[in-house]
Specification:
- The structure holds 2 protein chains of 2 kinds.
- Chain A is an alpha+beta fold.
- In chain A, 22% of the residues lie in helices and 24% in strands.
- Chain A is built from 3 helices and 5 strands, in the order βαβααβββ.
- Chain A has a 5-stranded mixed β-sheet with strand order 2-1-5-3-4, with helices on one face.
- The longest helix of chain A is centred in the middle third of the chain and has 11 residues.
- By secondary structure, chain B is mostly beta strands.
- A 4-stranded antiparallel β-sheet of chain B has the order 3-2-1-28, with no helix packed on it. In chain B, strands 4-5-6-7 form a 4-stranded antiparallel β-sheet, with no helix packed on it. A 4-stranded antiparallel β-sheet of chain B has the order 8-9-10-11.
- In chain B, β9 and β10 form a beta hairpin.
- The longest helix of chain B is centred in the middle third of the chain and has 4 residues.
- Chain B is globular, with a radius of gyration of 19 Å.
- The chains are: A alpha+beta, B mainly beta.
């Protein structure tokens, strides 16, 4: 199972995330992970990826501490013990 | 239920503020989405539903509606560009070696009701240049294909003005004929459908774009806002990047009516009277290269003779040290009431068609949209 942690920013729009600071999800790659998260928290996927399912410009996903390599298709593989952090990029004011 | 001018909705860089009229004053009734940019907000006069387009810096554009004037909100699916669509109209895309530019929702420019006889229809104008239509009260949205596939899209005739890609900021439905809709696109120009969006005709005849080497192309103009006189729907106005134009024949021909020796020329916003198509208001700014208030002084300019003459209305507005610009959706009018909000967070209103102004507040966030209801 992949362990997923979210930025607190997303708690404002998905309060249920605050109740589960770390989730466990079964997914073979990042795209599948986003799909499973969206099924569990309807609408969440649209906060992370755009109309083409590419990672939004100002969103970062880290897999085992490293930023995802394939921001367009999210094909980065996830092993059973992967640790994923979903963060917002620092931008704006 | 037509707008009465008793409600004022501010869409700002840091949230949505709804004011209600109390005698000669305004009272803040609700604050929503604090900290989140609201690109456009309005109340649908047919249903009373309050709509808000949000432009999250991180999470993309979202769409929400409230049926209780902002006390509670429901997020509804925002328009989604169909899978595989690319922006084929950008100047960059003319380079055959340029990578494909996938179409994805970048900005909600405007949200507009359909006709009174089609209460479930709404329109959303977006960047990168897609017009979305809902026929279920906003539960779902479909891209209008005839406009997205319009022949004028190719060849770099649609392009961004101030933003990366072309944006549809004006959607005007003829109150006498819901199948007739005009849109304004920065940059491309004005388009009209008379068959509810099945086909679109370019309506740019008479416009001039001094920023192009050939200033009179069929497509490639920059209307900043297009409005229609509801009482005489052949009467249209547009505040254009290159001046002020009006049309007396429903957009088939445009005539420039910019003021020759006065401030009414460059700007973003325009409002037209509900009954008399010869009465209009604009919010002047120093052109293009600078974009601040003209002469450091705020004014709204009004014409009552179809643009033959303009009068700068300044009573009650600060006349020194002003750097405000009024964005395209930042000025509105209902009956004798006018109001505007500025890029530096100042909001003013008038109860006598602009003759006198009062200040609603000077410490708002940047105002993207100000709409009466």
């Amino acid at each position: 199972m992949v362990r997923v942690a979210f930025t607190r920013h997303l708690h404002r729009f998905f309060p249920a995330l605050a109740e589960e600071p770390t989730l466990e999800v079964e997914a073979g790659d990042v795209a599948e992970l986003v799909g499973r998260l969206d099924a569990r928290f309807p609408g969440l996927g649209g906060y992370l990826v755009d109309d083409n399912r590419a990672l939004r410009q100002h969103v970062n996903i880290f897999v085992n501490g490293q930023p995802v390599q394939d921001r367009r298709r999210l094909s980065d593989p996830l092993d059973d013990h992967a640790s994923v952090h979903i963060m917002q990029a620092l931008s704006g004011g | 239920m037509a707008a009465t001018g008793d409600t004022l909705i501010l869409g700002t860089r840091k949230g949505l503020f709804l004011f209600e009229r109390r005698g000669n004053d305004w009272k803040l009734a609700s604050t929503s989405f604090l900290g989140i940019p609201i690109s456009y907000a309005m109340i649908d006069h047919r249903t009373g539903t309050l709509w808000a387009g949000q432009d999250h810096g991180h999470w993309g554009c979202k769409l929400s509606r409230s049926r209780d004037r902002g006390r509670t909100w429901e997020e509804v699916p925002a328009p989604v560009y169909p899978a595989g669509e690319v922006i084929k109209n950008s100047l960059m895309s003319m380079d055959p070696k340029a990578p494909e530019n996938p179409a994805t929702l970048k900005y909600i420019w405007c949200i507009g009701p359909g006709g009174d006889d089609e209460p479930n229809r709404l329109y959303i104008g977006t960047e990168p240049g897609g017009l979305f239509v809902s026929d279920d009260g906003g539960d779902s949205w479909q891209l209008n294909r005839p406009l997205w596939d319009h022949p004028s899209r190719v060849g770099g005739q649609w392009f961004g003005g101030g933003r990366d890609n072309a944006g549809i900021h004006s959607v005007v439905v003829d109150p006498n004929n819901s199948k007739r809709v005009l849109i304004g696109v920065s940059c491309a120009g004005t388009f009209e459908t008379t068959d509810a969006g099945k086909s679109w005709v370019v309506r740019n005849n008479g416009l001039k774009s001094s920023f192009l080497p050939e200033p009179n192309p069929e497509v490639g103009h920059d209307p900043h806002l297009v409005v229609m006189c509801p009482g005489k729907t052949s009467g249209l106005w547009q505040q254009n990047h290159c001046g002020i134009w009006k049309s007396k024949d429903g957009g088939q021909n445009w005539v420039e009516v910019s003021e020759q020796n006065g401030p009414a020329s460059f700007g973003f916003a325009v409002a037209v009277d509900e009954i008399d198509p010869d009465q209009a208001w604009v919010a002047p700014a120093i052109s293009d290269e600078c974009r601040v208030a003209v002469g450091g002084a705020l004014c709204i300019s009004r014409t009552t003779d179809g643009g033959k003459t303009w009068r700068a209305l300044r009573e009650g507005l600060p006349q020194a040290q002003c750097y405000d610009v009024i964005f395209r959706h930042g000025l509105d009018k209902v009956g004798d009431a006018l109001a505007f909000g500025t890029t530096t967070g100042n909001v003013y209103y008038s109860n006598d068609r602009g003759d006198h102004w009062k200040c609603l507040g000077t410490n708002f966030p940047l105002v993207y949209s100000l709409r009466f209801a």
